Amino acid sequence: MNNSQIILKLEKVNLYSSLLAKGKSNQLGYPILQDISFQAILGERLAIVGSTGAGKTSLLRLLNRLDEPTNGKIYFDNLEYHQIPIIELRKSVTFLPQEAKLLGMKVKQTLAYPLVLRGFNKQKIRPILDEWTEKLQIPNDWLEKTELQLSAGQRQIVAIARALLIQPKLLLLDEPTSALDAGNANKLMEILVTMSQDSQTTILMVNHQLTLAKKFCTKLIHLQQGKIFADLAASEVNWENLHESLLKAAEEDDFGF
Ligand SMILES: Nc1ncnc2c1ncn2[C@@H]1O[C@H](COP(=O)(O)OP(=O)(O)OP(=O)(O)O)[C@@H](O)[C@H]1O
Fold this sequence. Notes:
It holds the Pfam family ABC_tran. With 257 residues, the chain is of the alpha/beta class.
């Protein structure tokens, strides 16, 4: 594949709230995302930042087709999303939500599950599980546990491992470090950078922690009230100004309380 191949492209995408009410109303509700256009090339790492309610999760949900845009177009690997059977799209695009569930399975089974779905046999699954449990330093004694026996941070590490081990073409991560300590969060950033370089995975990560976003990204998308406020190469970002701008937006969201 050509290194500068565009893997993801959004053209004037809008999302209105009525769409989320499962067609109960034909009227447009309030805008959640407006006029969103950007693209990502193979192996690129995009940090999506913005204050609370800016539309970051809504954007990731559209990219995994959990919601449909009200209008505008999304292309994956040059095909319009609607042309791709959802089952095919899900093989290439993995979404890790903020609070991932381990489906009531033991850790061992939850890690193997996406590989079983892809038709891998036990012999093929074993070395992949060994590789990723080692990379994410998942101890053997977690493997027999269920999610109820894990802490929030441990659960997040397992959910991350499950998303990474299939090495999707496009990986969508919604605040993957929210329950991790600083050491694990930094380690994850290193793993993501290596993974995108080695296997050309394109990664979009929502993260409120700018120090982590800075370590991770090659490109930054700053959302503000559902619109793209900035779309910049990482080298062009003034991280101090960005920090100030996000603080100011958060203060304005306090409604004076
Ligand atoms: N199912 C829904 N129905 C209607 N409105 C929604 C729905 N989900 C989100 N919204 C609205 O869309 C806007 C964007 O929400 P979203 O969760 O995408 O923000 P976010 O940037 O991810 O915020 P946070 O940083 O708090 O996670 C908010 O105003 C929210 O109230």
